[in-house]
């Protein structure tokens, strides 16, 4: 557990990186610090704690007695609400953020990797690596209840690169909507109207706000 604490402490010290849009800043976590939140279970039980979502290991984490733990039995949850933002279970230990639109919901999948910027060069500086190194080897710790990084080094500086994938839900099935073609496939009955929308509006599927606006339009048809 001591090793695990060191790992997450290193993650917490990573530089902030703006990703996708102005709404998202991350150091490997969605929130800059653990926030008050509630877990709503399917059996109507509600548990309060301090939560944060780790986008590299894709785990819902919480603090308990000064320890960082991973939320067990994630599949039994209905939702986790942190600072007014809603997260719902997807698979394994992963959660999607749920954003309510006019007549539907958008779900956001956060996926991050740690990138090594260099090693300590003395006097608090860092030497540049010959090429940016992606840190993606993960080892299971604490009996599988939490995960950490096996190759993190205290003398290296890291940044987190985060990619967003957008989904909607139809008949209890998640459907990816990360491009124009995927939107057409998801709303085939309104393809002509949506084609006209794309002609009149420039949509960048790398920006969260653009995706929210176009899907809000699609749900309104």
Write the H/E string, N to C.
Answer: HEEEEEEEEEEEEEEEHHH
How many E-type strands? 15
Alpha carbon gyration radius: 19 Å
Shape assignment: globular
Task: List the domain count as a whole number.
Answer: 2
Residue share in β-strands: over 45%
- The separation of the N and C termini measures 52 Å
**Helix/strand-derived class?**
alpha+beta
Main β-sheet description:
11 strands, antiparallel
Total number of helices: 4
For this structure, the quaternary state is single chain
Low-confidence stretches: 1-26, 120-154
Report mean pLDDT, rounded to a whole number.
76
Helix content: 10-25%
Architecture overview:
With 221 residues, the chain is an alpha+beta fold. It folds into two domains: 2-165, no CATH class; 179-220, no CATH class. Helices cover 19% and strands 48% of the residues. The protein contains four helices and 15 strands. The chain has helices spanning 2-12, 180-186, 191-200, 208-220, and strands at 17-18, 25-26, 35-41, 46-54, 59-64, 67-70, 77-82, 85-91, 94-100, 105-122, 125-135, 138-141, 146-149, 156-170, 173-176. Strands 3, 4, 5, 6, 7, 8, 9, 10, 11, 14 and 15 form an eleven-stranded antiparallel sheet that branches. A two-stranded antiparallel sheet has the order 1-2. The protein has a two-stranded antiparallel ribbon with strand order 12-13. A hairpin with a 4-residue loop joins strand 12 and strand 13. Helix 2 (180-186) packs antiparallel against helix 3 (191-200). The longest helix has 13 residues, at 208-220. It is globular, with a radius of gyration of 19 Å. The chain starts with a helix and ends with a helix. 26% of the residues are buried. Residues 1-26 and 120-154 have low confidence and may be disordered.
């Amino acid at each position: 557990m001591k090793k695990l604490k060191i790992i997450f402490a290193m993650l917490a010290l990573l530089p902030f990186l703006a990703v996708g849009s102005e709404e998202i800043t991350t150091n490997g976590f969605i929130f800059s610090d653990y926030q008050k939140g509630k877990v709503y279970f399917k059996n109507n039980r509600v548990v309060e704690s301090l939560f944060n979502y780790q986008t590299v290991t894709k785990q819902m984490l919480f603090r308990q007695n000064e320890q960082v733990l991973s939320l067990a039995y994630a599949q039994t949850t209905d939702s986790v609400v942190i600072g007014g933002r809603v997260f719902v279970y997807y698979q394994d230990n992963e959660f999607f953020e749920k954003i309510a639109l006019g007549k539907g919901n958008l779900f956001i999948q956060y996926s991050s990797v740690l990138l090594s910027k260099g090693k300590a060069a003395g006097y608090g500086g860092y030497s540049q690596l010959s090429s940016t190194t992606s840190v993606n080897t993960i080892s299971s710790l604490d009996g599988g209840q939490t995960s950490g990084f096996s190759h993190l080094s205290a003398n290296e500086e890291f940044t987190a690169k985060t990619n967003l994938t957008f989904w909607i839900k139809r008949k209890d099935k998640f459907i990816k909507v990360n491009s124009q073609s995927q939107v057409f496939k998801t709303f085939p009955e309104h393809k002509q109207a949506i084609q006209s929308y794309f002609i009149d509006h420039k949509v960048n599927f790398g920006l969260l706000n653009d995706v929210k606006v176009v899907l809000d339009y699609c749900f309104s048809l």
